[in-house]
Amino acid sequence: MATSNTTLLPPLSPPSSDSDSDSGTSSRQHQHTDLSSTIFKSYLELTGHQSSPQHQDLIKIQSFLTSSRSGALSCLICLERIKPTDPTWSCSSRCFAVFHLLCIQSWAHQSSNLAAARAASRAATLNDDTLRWHCPKCRIEYPKSQTPKYYYCFCGKLENPPHDPWILPHSCGEICGRPLTYNCGHECLLLCHPGPCPSCPKLVKTKCYCGATEDVRRCGFKDFSCKGVCRKTLACGSHRCGEICHDGDCPMCRKKGVYKCQCGKVELERECCERIFRCENPCQKLLGCGRHVCERGCHKGNCGECPLQGKRTCPCGKRVYEGMACDVAVPLCGATCDKLLSCGFHRCPERCHRGPCIETCRTVVTKSCRCGSARKQIPCYQDLTCERKCQKVRDCGRHACKRRCCDGDCPPCSEICDRRLRCRNHKCPAPCHRGACSPCPLMVMISCSCGETHFEVPCGTETEQKPPKCPKRCRVAPLCTHRLICKPHKCHYGACPPCRLICDEEYSCGHKCKLRCHGPRPPALPEFTLKPKKKKSSHEAEHIPGTLCPPCPELVWRSCVGNHIGAERMMICSNPAEFSCDNLCGTLLSCGNHYCTKICHALKSDSKSYSSVLAESCEECNLPCQKERSPPCPHPCPLVCHPGECPPCHSLIKRACHCGAMVHALKCIYYNSLDEREQVAVRSCGGPCHSFDFGATESYQTVRIYVQRSVIVVNVHHLTSAPKRLLFGADARP
After folding, report:
1. In Å, how far are 75, 192, 258 from 83, measured between CA atoms?
2. For residue 150, what is the DSSP state?
3. Cross-strand pairs, 191
4. Could you tell me which residues are beta bridge partners of residue 712?
5. Cβ contacts of residue 376 below 8 Å, gap of 6+?
6. Nearest to 370 by CA among 349, 397, 392, 388
7. What is the C-alpha separation between 329 and 314, in angstroms, rounded?
8. What band does 428 get if pLDDT is binned at 50, 70 and 90?
9. CA nearest 101: which of 115, 113, 83?
10. Please, is 200 exposed, middle or buried when counting C-beta atoms within 10 Å of its C-beta (0-12, 13-18, 19+)?
11. Positive or negative, the Cα torsion across 696, 697, 698, 700?
């Protein structure tokens, strides 16, 4: 009865702008949904334990199909990718590995020729039926007559199958039809496929292991347990199996009881499976002669007749005696024993004797050593070996034999090959051999991060494979600042793609980074990372993921170091370069009266952090002070040009009184700080108006003028009279 199941596929969500898909909208419409995982899921659930052979076969089939569909099939011999149009051969015994037809033919011929060369070196004759070659992966041997000559599809029905893009490469597209395993009598119903055929899916009536329950099950999984008690009769014939319904023979009976040994002398409590046993006591039963006892160990049945009755001979066997009683010893004949010794060449030289002959033959003979280089007379039981080391090269063609006294049949080389395999990842672990090493048998699993999509490739070809595409979303959370707004992307192989949003981080200057996000990215898992290929980049990367923002690239107007108006320039914000315009500095000097005449420069005392190259002090003012004194004074300031007010003028100025009789010498600051009325009062002598003419008379010898308490004192010395004292000042009294 045929049944049809309709499966509704979920609607495809529109791809995001951050999707890592490399196909456009048109190609996405023609993509077929991968149903292999759904198909194999039910089969894998039926197989049960992962170590079962059915489970391993299904995994192998799924891996082959995934690798074939994705173009990841590689030849183990040449490590090149197997193209859909390349002739191939697949091992049909155990591993089902796929090889190039030319590669496997060359491999088979080399292996057969090497086996023939080894046989010829040992003088052995071989024919085509005895010459064998092995599969490079599983080491299953094939006769030379089965060397592949033609290109067949996977099922072996069609020779040279044409390439069809709508069917599996190297497949005929027809039903496989190969006999299924375990000899169920049915044939494979899948389309021509690589790898082993799956278990038989037909429904048959079958019984459980113990035969108590009958059920309808899949033919490939018809063996089952009913979970009841087995109840089969055990080997003892007395008890029944108490185990749960199981496969194979029932265990031994473990029921305990009291049983006798074979001779019946000893009784012990033993398990039923060990009820037949022998004690350690000798039999000691009287034989039929009535004179001797049985010397056999514990046994059942009769002991038999006495071995000393009937026809008897001497120990060497040359003289026969008849009619002698069993308890009488046979006499020695006295002749030479002449029995063949253990060497197989000489005979015993002793007289007829009881017991064994001598173990070692001491006859002196001339012997040659095994290699034939030495001859010597030695006792027969000794072997002659010389000290000469064999220099013959072993069958590996690399190492000498080095065995002492070798007979020419050198043993195989015991050294490890240890040559680098073609995968470039491992070394050959086999004993040293001639010819090419076997390919690396290891397979590398290439999988996406979630593990749903994966396939196996030969070791050494993982760098040339395309990563598998998984339709599910990536489970790795972003680490950059856009983790909350970043659009999800599909599950992938290796590291997550970089975030495509704008960084938008704020600089210390106030601008924002306008590059693409270059924050930290989650690291790729080591087991899901391809080895990087050596490719030269045609252009420099815009940024390095996981680094800080580059310096601010914005253009800003910047003044010169002297901050002159109209001398601004357009410069990059993060560029700390400084420039000087051609104008004069114009900075007010420390004197506060003049300006700096140097070319534009930075001041050391400026709060801005200019470099020490352009920062310098303004010039020093060395001009005389030209300020007007306050109060106004005719005397110039004696200091160099300075800030602030000039110091008070202490110069003496002479002012005559109104009558001209007295001359006043006053300080300039004092006199000029008075108003006009006070100046008139200061110049008055306070006495009657006189007029002295010191220059016209000769009656005055000297005139001394000195200052006492802001009053000018004039001493006039007359030649004929006593000196007179004249006082000038505000407090002067005559």
Report:
1. 10, 18, 74
2. S
3. 175
4. 707, 728
5. 366, 367, 384
6. 388
7. 9
8. confident
9. 83
10. buried
11. negative
CA distance 472 to 515: 29
Q: Is the separation of the CB atoms in 92 and 138 below 8 Å?
A: no
> What stretches of 581-689 adopt beta strand conformation (E)?
652-656, 663-667
With H, G, I as helix, E, B as strand and everything else as coil, classify residue 221.
helix
Q: At 88, phi and psi to the nearest 5?
A: -130, 165
Q: Tell me: the pLDDT tens digits for 101-148?
A: 999 999 998 888 888 877 777 666 666 667 888 888 888 888 888 889
Question: Which of 61, 67, 62 is CA-nearest to residue 82?
Answer: 67
82: tokens are 């197997």
Is the Cβ–Cβ distance between 63 and 72 less than 8 Å? no
| pTM for this predicted structure | 0.49
> Per-residue pLDDT averaged across 716-730, rounded?
41
Please state at what angle helix 53-70 crosses helix 36-47, rounded to 10 degrees.
Answer: 170
Cβ(408)–Cβ(427) below 8 Å: no
Question: Peptide bond preceding 631: is omega within 30 degrees of 0, i.e. cis?
Answer: yes
State residue 5's pLDDT score. 36
In sequence order, what E strands does 188-293 have?
203-207, 214-218, 256-260, 267-271
The answer to whether the CB of 715 falls within 8 A of the CB of 708 is no
- Phi, psi angles (nearest 5°) of residue 244: -70, 145
For 48-60, what is the HEC assignment? CCCCCHHHHHHHH
Helices (H) and strands (E) in the chain, counts: 6, 21
Give residue-wise pLDDT tens across range 139-183: 888 888 888 999 999 888 899 999 888 888 888 989 988 888 766
